[in-house]
Each structure stands twice: as C-alpha cells, then as structure tokens.
Amino acid sequence: MLKHLGLNPGTTFHQWLKDILAENHSDSWQALKQQMNTQIPGLRFDPVSLPNNIEVPDPAPFDPQNWQVELKVVTAELSSTTKIVLPERDGKLFYTDLDQANPADFARASMSVPVFFYPFKVPVPKTQSVTDAWQALGYKKKSMPDTAVFVDGGLISNFPINLFHTTHSVPKMPTFGAKLGIEEYVAGKIDGIKPYLGSLIGAMRHDADEEFIRKNPDYKKLVKSIDTGEHHWLDFTLSNEAKLDLFKRGLAASLEFLNNFDWPEYKKTRLTLAGLK
C-alpha cells in the first residue's frame, strides 16, 4: 500500500479495455476518432431554428461539419495538481503523438480511485511539442514533471457536464447527463473525523459541477438522477443479480426521462438565454 499508493494495480481493467478496443480496431486515438465520426445511416439533423422560425419542416441530412463526436475523460494529475481532460484538451502535455495513444490509457487514468487502485503513471517526454504545451501553462522545462501521476478525476469534477456547454448559441443536439444516485439536499452533522473527512471529500468532488448547474439552471432539464438503491459505487464484486437490477433501474429512468424531455421547448429556452429571442 505505502509503496504503490494503492491496493490494486488496475492492470486487469487496463488490459480488458485494451483487448476490447483492439478487437474493434480502435486501439489508438486516431482509430477511435474515425470510428466515432462514422455517421449513423438514416440519422438526420434538425438545424437550430431562427428566433422567428422555431420549427424546421424538412430536417437536413448530417454532413461531417455537423457530426463532430467528442470524447472528454477527466482525471487529476497530482504532480502538477491539475484537472486534466483527455484526449484533446490536455493530451499534448503527455504524448508526443496523441493520435497514437491508446484510449485505454485515458480510462485507466480516470478510474484510479485513491487507496483502492495504484495511480496511473505516464513518463512525460521532453520533446519540443510537449515542452511547449507545459510552458503554455507557465511551467519552465526544468520544472516540468518527469512522470505524470493520475488519479480518479471524480475527486475534483464528478459530473463535468460543463465540458459540452455552449454559452452564446443554441446547441445542435442536447447534452444528456445521467447521475448515479438521487439528489437529496440534507445538511450533514459534522461531529467526528469520519463525517468531517466525508464532507470534505464530498465538497471537493461536487462543488465545481454544482456551481455550474446553479449558474445554468436549464441543465436541470438535461440531467436524470438514477436511483441506485443499496448498490454502492465502490462495490467491485457485484453479483449478476445486482448488475441486472442496476440495468433495470437505468432503463426505467431513461424511459421516464426521454418520455418527458421536450427538445423544441428546450431550444426556445436556450434561444432566450443566449439573447437571440
């Protein structure tokens, strides 16, 4: 534990995901991007309407400019105490050729729950492109980390829906969010070290994301909280029965959400917020 800073090396998960990506010819970021940006046959795009014409009777087919799928994996890098978004925003800090990086690395970096898993470590190359990226953040070459140390991004941003936010326009498509657990706004009683530490970590995990939703209350219409019952997010030995129960809960919550979501009405809300109506 003290030597490796965690109980489980995380290699089983890492290899499992590598194998799945390889089987699907997506074991590099470049290959995965190509897969993600393959258009779905028959899918059509309803362009954002003008303020005086909310409804568009004849939706246009997708074209490559309208179909830009993004992947954003959040992790925390300890040596620089920085929130990292992989691959595109911050990958240049750790990879000379980001397109050849294995996406399994991004997931492994993000799932490293402290104590439970070893941190995920990546040597930081001292190439010119990587050095330039660090210098843009204010680091001199001699102060750059030699090794990046990644832990669970949920420690500092547990629900980063803000990464897909557009401020001064109406989105082409809605950004849906699924939160595990029902929101219950109940003040905790801080009467000992355990509740103190629990509340401290909770504030670290949720504050930034909750602040974003407070400033953008329209996002409440895009997020569905899923009741997970007695299942805990750190239960790594779920039975098949428990997995099926979670699946059913997710399915029921999804159907309820989609049956009540009003996309035309949401676009009107965003038009108003963007000052376009």
From TrEMBL:
Q: Which GO terms describe its biological process?
A: lipid metabolic process
What are the boundaries of the signal sequence? none
Would I find Nucleotide-binding among this entry's keywords? no
Known InterPro entries for this protein? Acyl_Trfase/lysoPLipase, PNPLA_dom
Q: Which UniProt keywords apply?
A: Lipid metabolism
Q: What residues does the PNPLA domain cover?
A: 55-164
Q: Would I find Lipid metabolism among this entry's keywords?
A: yes
Write down what this protein is called.
PNPLA domain-containing protein
Task: Identify the taxonomic lineage of the organism of origin.
Answer: Bacteria, Pseudomonadati, Pseudomonadota, Gammaproteobacteria, Alteromonadales
